[in-house]
Specification:
single chain, alpha+beta, 4-stranded antiparallel β-sheet, 3-stranded antiparallel β-sheet, 7 helices, 7 strands, 54% helix, elongated, transmembrane helix, membrane
């Protein structure tokens, strides 16, 4: 590794918190689906059908689990970000990467004051628990990328130091960010419409002649469609949470 001078600070990433939030989100989803399945399957609980619909709202935990799982996998074990006089080092138990300040090509950091706000609403507390009040993304000339959030110790101080080192690399990613919820909205509407058409077809007389394999394929398609709908709707909800957080 090239000489980057003296190490100025070291920032540990608490990867275990990612795994814990993944487990909590999946447990919430599993409990909600189980409750809904029991209510629907037991004939004597017909009057409790609204409870089943409400329990399905826990599917919103699925996209949260997916996002946090992605962070956990990328984080690896024993992850640290070390700031040196002349560059930045990213190291885990298996890999070590280093860049000079001049190699930063793009830097996108969140609001530094967001992490200091006292959570008031349940959404505020959820955002704090997930470490989403502050985040920073960095791109380098060699194609490397880094991201860190509140699960990284002194994340705001590290992000501020990067901005001070490379103010010319700070970018406004607002247009790119809009592509994600826009794509999620199109996916949600399109998949939802397809699900409605599929359910109407299954309820029509024309579905009586379907064989067992065709019916099974349609049911699997419905399950996949519901999953895609839940994921895309979750992205929309998380976007709304992000906008709500920024407007506070």
């Amino acid at each position: 590794m090239e000489d980057l001078g003296r190490r100025l600070s070291s920032h540990r990433v608490d990867g275990g918190r990612y795994w814990r939030t993944v487990g909590a989100a999946l447990a919430c989803v599993s409990a909600g689906v189980a409750i809904a399945a029991v209510v629907v399957a037991v004939p004597t609980l017909t009057a409790a059908r609204p409870v089943a619909y409400a329990a399905l709202a826990t599917l919103l935990g699925l996209p949260i689990a997916v996002v946090q799982l992605g962070h956990a996998v990328r984080s690896g074990r024993d992850e640290h970000l070390d700031r040196y006089e002349h560059g930045l080092v990213h190291r885990t138990a298996r890999r070590r990467r280093a860049w000079r300040w001049a190699e930063i090509t793009r830097l996108s950091a969140g609001d530094e004051t967001a992490a200091d706000r006292v959570p008031v609403t349940p959404i505020d507390r959820l955002v704090r628990t997930l470490g989403w009040r502050y985040g920073c993304r960095v791109r380098f000339a060699d194609g490397g990328r880094l991201r860190f959030d509140e699960y990284t110790s002194e994340a705001v101080a590290l992000g501020r130091a990067l901005r001070e080192r490379r103010p010319d690399a700070v970018s406004d990613a607002s247009r790119a960010v809009l592509l994600v919820p826009a794509g999620a909205l199109v996916t949600f509407v399109g998949t939802g419409a397809a699900l409605v058409l599929a359910v109407r077809f299954l309820a029509s007389p024309g579905a009586d002649g379907l064989g067992g394999s065709a019916s099974a394929a349609i049911i699997l398609g419905l399950v996949a469609g519901l999953t895609v709908c839940a994921l895309s709707f979750g992205v929309l909800v998380m976007t709304a949470i992000s906008v709500y957080r920024d407007l506070r």
